[in-house]
Amino acid sequence: MGAPLIHASFALERRYAASASTIFAAFADPALKACWFARDVRPEVRWHEFRIGGHECYRGMSPRGEPYGYDGTYQDIVADRRIVFTYGMSVAGRCLSLSLATVDIAPEGPQSRLVYAEQGMFLDGLDNPRCRQRGTVELLSRLAQVVAADIT
Amino acid sequence: MTDRSIAYGTFVIEKTLPASPRRVFAAWADVKQKAKWFGAPGEDNTPQQFDFRVGGREFSESAVGDTTFTFDVHYQDIVPDQRIIYTYDMTMGGARISVSLASVELTPMGQGTRLLLTEHGAFLDGLDNNEQRKDGTIALIGQLEKFLEMQDA
Q1: Taking CB atoms and an 8 Å cut-off, how many pairs form between chains A and B?
Q2: What is the pTM of this model?
Q3: Contact assignment for B99 to A123 by CB distance below 8 Å
Q4: Interchain proximity B77–A123, CB inside 8 Å
Q5: I need a labelling partner for A69 at 20 to 30 A (CA). Which of A1, A41, A108, B40 fits?
Q6: Between helices A20-28 and A129-151, what is the axis angle to 10°?
Q7: Are the C-beta atoms of residues A101 and A76 closer than 8 Å to each other?
Q8: Does the distance separating the beta carbons of B101 and A120 come in below 8 Å?
Q9: Which residues 6+ apart lie within 8 Å of A118 measured at CB?
Q10: Which residues contact residue B66 at a Cβ distance below 8 angstroms, ignoring those fewer than 6 apart?
């Protein structure tokens, strides 16, 4: 009998010195997204199909030499405004977690406000919500570098 | 222009059901059984597509009056007789109203089963909300209980 699921959620709010369309493009454009997302894990397979129903997949080897996978599906997209997606992560063929994530972008004067929210389930004690939140904080600060570079 | 919004919500339903985990699991996994309790009472709720396996899809389209509703499910994790995890989205009249991540966990409880359903939702543009979804799901689990009781009779 597997361990019970751990359910957790978090929301992060950030302000960027960039337009909503610049921030949206950093999620939507595969080349721009590769500048800040899944960069250190050096995936051997990268697939990014940014449309409703489209898939986003990464496959590679973890530093410990285990194959990992990220499998996401875009559920709702409103240009320059909103992205809703679900994704699962696995290591060595075992599902670690499943998540529902939303990116909400709104213009705020010359800046933009981004709210990233995630609700997740962690399976069989293989991952934990604290690590996920920490990883996402790191991603959003890399995103800041990408969008800031874009407006200069 | 539509006023865009996202409302987040989570609900948990816990219920002891009068059947073994194997039978409760089958009521979700077998489309003929699921169609008898998952949906509007007294109607044929057979989905247009039903592929119960990890990576498989379930899809239903139905009309209430002039409005078309869709229910589009992707099964994410399945452990027979123990666990089902799926994501789904719903549309109403072509507008997406919600995206959800749900789990159903089954554990033996005496002669029966303890069902724990947890659902995380993103409700879009004010078109639906967590309370309404919770009430609808409580009604469905009530129908599941009746279905299992009738199987016994």
Answers
A1: 82
A2: 0.94
A3: no
A4: yes
A5: A1
A6: 120
A7: no
A8: yes
A9: A9, A10, A11, A99, A100, A101, A102, A132, A136
A10: none
A100 touches chain B (CB under 8 A): yes
End-to-end alpha carbon distance in chain B: 54
SS3 content of chain B, % helix, strand, coil (to 5): 25, 50, 25
pLDDT for position A128: 85
Provide, rounded to the nearest whole percent, the portion of chain B with pLDDT above 90.
Answer: 90
What confidence score (pLDDT) does residue B55 get?
A: 94
CB atoms within 10 A of CB B115: 21
Cα R_g (chain B), whole angstroms: 16
For residues A120 and A133, is the Cβ–Cβ distance under 8 A? no
What is the per-residue pLDDT across B20-31, written as a single tens digit (0 to 9) for each? 999 999 999 999
pLDDT at residue B2, as a whole number: 63
User: Of A83, A76, A120, whose CA–CA distance to A98 is shortest?
Assistant: A120
Q: Which residues lie closer than 8 Å to B42 by C-beta, 6 or more apart?
A: none
Q: Please write the tens of the pLDDT for every residue from B113-129.
A: 999 999 999 999 999 99
Determine which helix (DSSP H) or strand (DSSP E) holds A145, and give its type and residue range.
Answer: helix A129-151
Q: Which residues of A touch B75 (CB under 8 A)?
A: none
Residue A9 with chain B: CB contacts under 8 Å: 8, 10, 120
Q: Which residues contact A106 (CB under 8 A, 6 or more apart)?
A: A20, A81, A112, A113
Q: What is the ipTM of this complex?
A: 0.91
Q: How far is CA A43 from CA A40, B55, B142, in A?
A: 8, 22, 46
